[in-house]
Batch of 2 targets.
Target 1
Amino acid sequence: MPVHVVCPGCGAVNRLPEERLAAEFQAARCPSCRSPLFPGKPIEVDGAGLARQIERSDLPLLVDFWAPWCGPCRMMAPSFAEAAARLEPVVRALKLDTEADQAAGARHGIRSIPTLALFVGGREVARQAGAMSTPQILQWVEGRLR
Ligand code: ZN
Ligand code: ZN
């Protein structure tokens, strides 16, 4: 079964065989723009980029809704980055700056930041407000994907 992965660089939808995903994800590059498909860190998206991932990605998406002025958001950033690297290639970690794209925050009903939201199969399955450590993030995600 091919797994559809949306390129972090250009948004192209790539089809990866499941075996290749597990074994060679770190080497996988987008044929269109040569970006690594799994960069080992969170991918920054705006509302349109998030919508494309939600619509086309087969990978569960973990989204950090944050803003530059938010102290707890900045405090959580390194933990989220570490969790992003550890979750590859099973989960795609994204960051959405709700200050830069306020409409996207409103569309997703974000009331406080940071808020983590998990999307599976094109819909949101869980969300959690407040800063978390790396182990807490990993535990939260794993508990909801089971
Ligand atoms: Zn698919
Ligand atoms: Zn690309």
Target 2
Amino acid sequence: MKQRTLAIIKPDGVSRNLVGAVLSRMEAEELRVVAMKMIKMTKEQAKGFYRVHEGKPFFESVTDFMSSGPCVVLVLEGDDAIRRYRTLMGATDYTKAEEGTIRREFATDIEKNVVHGSDSEETARFEIGYFFNALEVMA
Ligand code: CMP
């Protein structure tokens, strides 16, 4: 089943020149880029994006981090894209991520974990709509 998911290359990935490496990994897994741009979120925008995590101990810190520098936000399309992209990313905590995953290879910290991906179809709809309008996403 063809699906779309929202992916972010986080400020640590952009500042460490990992954009190309991460995109290659996505495309090699048959995840097609159907929208992409570079943005720098304000603290308020980062809080809006991560609102499901409001109240958690890492909320202030992760929203500071996500608004600290540019991110690349993109929409990926493919069969079972949400689950397959999450497998490609690996666990949030890179020390627990499988060998060969993006986070295992590149992350340095549970917070500075290089990439984000939607965790369900409902989340993907919200997250894609948070960053992209209809004209910016390929039909
Ligand atoms: P992400 O998948 O984007 O979702 C929430 C983010 O919060 C997570 O990746 C990490 O960057 C950050 N984070 C920091 N600490 C934690 C934690 N203990 N559990 C989950 N996420 C955390």
